[in-house]
Amino acid sequence: MTIEATDARSIPLFPFPADSPGGAQAEYVRRRAACPFGTVHTPAGHDAVLLVRGEDVEAALADTRLAHNLTAPGSPRIHLASSFRQDPRLMTNMDGAQHLRLRRIVAPSFTPRNVSRWEPAINAIAEELCDAMIEAGPPADITTAYCFALPVRIICELLGVPRTDADRFRQWSGAFLSVVPMTPAERAEQVEEFTAYVTGLVAARRRDPGDALIDSLIAARDGDDRLTEPELVMMVLGLIAVGNEATSNSLARALRTLLRGQRELWTSLIADPGRLPAAVEELLRHSPPGGMFAMRQARETVDFPSGTLHAGQGVIIASESALRDPDVYPDPDSVRFDRPRRPQLVFGGGPHYCLGAHLAKAELASGIGCLLRRMPGLHLEIAYEAVRFSNGDILSSPLALPVSW
Question: What 3 state SS string does 315-360 have?
Fold first, then answer.
């Protein structure tokens, strides 16, 4: 059955206002029960069906009849401001054969086997950052000293670029992913600088190749097919931006969750570090990066468990709601490291499942594991509820996590 608002004046605006730091779960709870296939209105001026139940979200993420490319005039959008979500050159915004071609070329660079080769470098960077924090002494803002520093240092290492460029990557990534509010002109200037840097980097590595990830992407082939120069630049841009911001956001949110209250979750991992891989999966479910929703457009009629979507309609897939659906995750607001494994919705689904998922989980496991070993007494200096968020258009990151140990 399709449940929709009939009075345009009653259609709620989406994204919903946060009812608590970093989330709008109260409205999702209400809609899962009473309006699982209702209509919402976006700041860009479009109406769309909002999917909030786990079974609908899982089906939508895997359905190739829902278009990712929303660049045509009149396509539904969430925000008016230009962002990476409207860039047709990015693989995440491609469909069909165009998307499959790029994925076939680059997927071998991101296999679990390749990620395992990078783990010693990832672990070494985590150790260096722990050393620096311990040497400086408490208190510290762990978002700056560790959560944001770790993934950007890792991506510099994997791409073979100077560590001195790490701060520039952080600034550019924030603009690329709309992490913090900026004017369109400011964002465009930052993205232009970012693109020029990556273009130069690709040209330099083509002249003088090494054995870094960027060299693997330059050399990647599917038979006689390979990435064009613009495709390669966009691939590296996306890798730096998403790999930096999404992972740093996830790590900060995970630590906030682990250190809340009496730190029972933290101490349980100290007692049994073998649970860390399961903990990473559960923390991604419970405390995912902010802005876990995406707009798609139906190319034909699509039936979902909660209703029918018609050709041309926009649909918003609210993964952050699905991750708290009690019909899929019993006792969803609790963090349980013994949950049965399910597909990780944080990384999407179907043909668009995130290529960097294995790398992201390896970074989170290394980052949390190093802190557990080196700084077991780590604790928050402010209340869990007092943590403030950036409230960007797409990602919302913790602004600071003051800690001591």
Answer: EEEEHHHHCCCCCCCCCCCCCCCCCCCCCCHHHCCHHHCCCCHHHH
